[in-house]
Amino acid sequence: MGAHMAMARLMRAPTPSFLLALVVAALSFMNMLPFGLPDATADALLEFKNSLGKSSVVLSDWGVSPNPCNGDKGVWLGMLCFDGKVRGVKLEKMGLQGTLKVEPLAKLPYLKTLSFRNNSFQGPLPNLSLIKKLRSVFLSDNNFSGEIPDEAFDGLNYLRRLHLGRNDFSGEIPSSLAELPNLYEVELEDNNFSGEIPDFKSTQLATVDFSNNDLEGEIPKSLSSLDSKFFEGNDRLCGGTTGVVCIFPPAPAPSLPPGPSPAPSAVSSGKSSLGLKIALGIVSVLLILLIISVILIFVKKRKQQSELDRAELLDNSSKYTAGTASQIDTKSVENNNINHPARRGGEQGKLSFVRDDRERFDLHDLLRASAEILGSGNFGASYKALILTDAVVVKRYKQMNNVGREEFHDHMRRLGKLTHPNLLPLVAYYYRREEKLLVSDFVENSSLASHLHGNHNLHQPVLDWPTRLRIIKGIGRGLAYLYNTLPSLVVPHGHLKSSNVLLDENMEPLLNDYALLPVINMDQAQHLMMAYKSPEYAQHRRITKKTDVWCFGIIILEVLTGKFPENYIMQSYDSKADLGSWVNGMIKEKKTSEVFDLEMGNVGNSKGELLKLLKIGVSCCEEDVERRLDLHEVVAKIDELNEGESDGDYRSSVSSEGGEDDDHTSLAV
Hints:
Distance between the termini: 76 Å
Number of domains: 3
Low-confidence stretches: 1-38, 249-271, 303-348, 645-669
Strand order of the largest sheet: 3-4-6-8-10-12-14
CATH topology of the largest domain: Transferase(Phosphotransferase), domain 1
Number of strands: 25
Number of helices: 19
Largest sheet: 7 strands, mixed
């Protein structure tokens, strides 16, 4: 009886220890579940994927891993992540079709960015107002159509960037868009918008584009100072910087109360005064037009008197490998550059300097400077220009067309802050929608590739073993700095190869073309950049933090063997042509003596160090990413190497196979 009463009391009033036991048991049970509790974020994304219908096949990796994010890294394709949370969905140029439904995405609590540029979505603008924290929306280059409801942007007070260009939207620009307080970029070009442009309330607007629509009326005061190019293609717009004077019908004369007619003298006096005002107005307009005509004629003559348009030279640089500007047929250049940006008045900007330790010059100085065409690389032409007493290199990029102005500025300023002895510093840049210019210092000793594979009779010294080891160490330190300073980038370099390693007057390496992946068009990046020629991209269509390590390994083997890697010129990874695979095969066949470049000359007692570096290079080129060395581990191992003694001849030291066989097994990977 007492036991039953005690049990009843226990059931009526559970003790804290009893409750704790229940909690522990529940947690243990949940941990035993094969997949844990369902993830609302993953469920919402999979719901969105299903809404895409047949075109969702490109998102086949969604759901393979239970979590879309791993820290700041996106695990699922197109995820923009921060601290393990989905902050954005970026699915560009993927052939997605149908109607875009964002209702599932509205369930993501931290979503701030949507980017579906260059797809084939149809139908009306999705209901963006469901996602209140949106900051950036990029829907350009689709097939959206129809009118946008006036209240479509209600409540989106955090929205800063809206790109709807090159669609088929019609009707008036929604007034709710103009009311948003934090807008920074609005691009509505190449649609069928009509009516007047509303007066935008945001004081932060830096970029707008209403060109090639059917807008009319006076440009509002909030936009009146913006460049006229943003309003081109709207024949009925006036005011602002367009140069078109707004002419409105006269207001109706006020009705006069009945009374005695004015005296004839007063009537004639009024008519005379009105006629005088009309005459003065006509004279003023004619005078203004005359002044504008004179200015235009003056500007045109100045352009015709320009000695040479440097940007025009770049358009034809593929025809020349080297030479001075005076050696180029300028007539043929002009014929091929009718639509060059220098001929559009509104597109010219100014150079933006990112370093304080350089003497300033402007774009005009750059274009008129004596120059030498250096050649064309993967990303475009480059040339050497002499500005005052300094030589600079200007590289022209056309593969950054999809990068917004502010996004490009932010990334260039970020690169301008990088300072390391083994990085070629960015000096300045020039932004234009169709192309970009990057300016850096000229490096006299050319690239590592030219020293390894070029004509050594042209006053180029052969690289000995100590110099090669010093170069490898410098590359490693430069890479480590990029990894430490740019941790958010999957591949902080992304285009590491021997032609992008320049050598200064002391033969110290300077990394070039680094950290450009965020601003390169993805289709061009996959076609041109070394990171996308790695085995992991060929096998799994993705790059990792160890992709730069693979590129570094190729350079190490290139330096040791003197062989030109076929990876540089191939469209994708091929294990049969891979330099790492060739070296590994030679090691397994016990032919290590045939691997090293005999032009290294005397290496003396450094044979062991050579073999250690060879082993590091092969480990960096491991196809299995999990087995591949980590970058900081690679740098630590390389820093332990030394040049050794140089009292023997390498040609004789490797002629005998006997002493090397013990190393073959340890080197084979």
